[in-house]
Amino acid sequence: xxxxxxxxxxxxxxxxxxxxxxxxxxxxxxxxxxxxxxxxxxxxxxxxxxxxxxxxxxxxxxxxxxxxxxxxxxxx
Length: 76
What we know:
The chain is an all-alpha fold. 68% of the residues lie in helices and 0% in strands. Helix 1 crosses helix 2. The mean pLDDT is 82. Keywords: Membrane, Receptor, Transmembrane, Transmembrane helix.
C-alpha cells in the first residue's frame, strides 16, 4: 500500500506547500495512476501468497486439483 500510495501522498503534500507546476506533467500523472491501480496489485500479491487461492485458480484453469499437504497441529 505504501509503495502505491506513497508517491501520490508525497506529490499531494508537495502541491500543498509548493507550486505543483514545477513538477513535470508526466510525473504528476503517474502518481495517481500508480495509486489507483493498487487494488490490481493487491489481487496478484494475494494470489501469490495464499496457497488455497492458487490451488483454486489452478483447478479452475486446468481442471486438476492440487493436493495440499496437511500440516500437523503442533500446539497440542
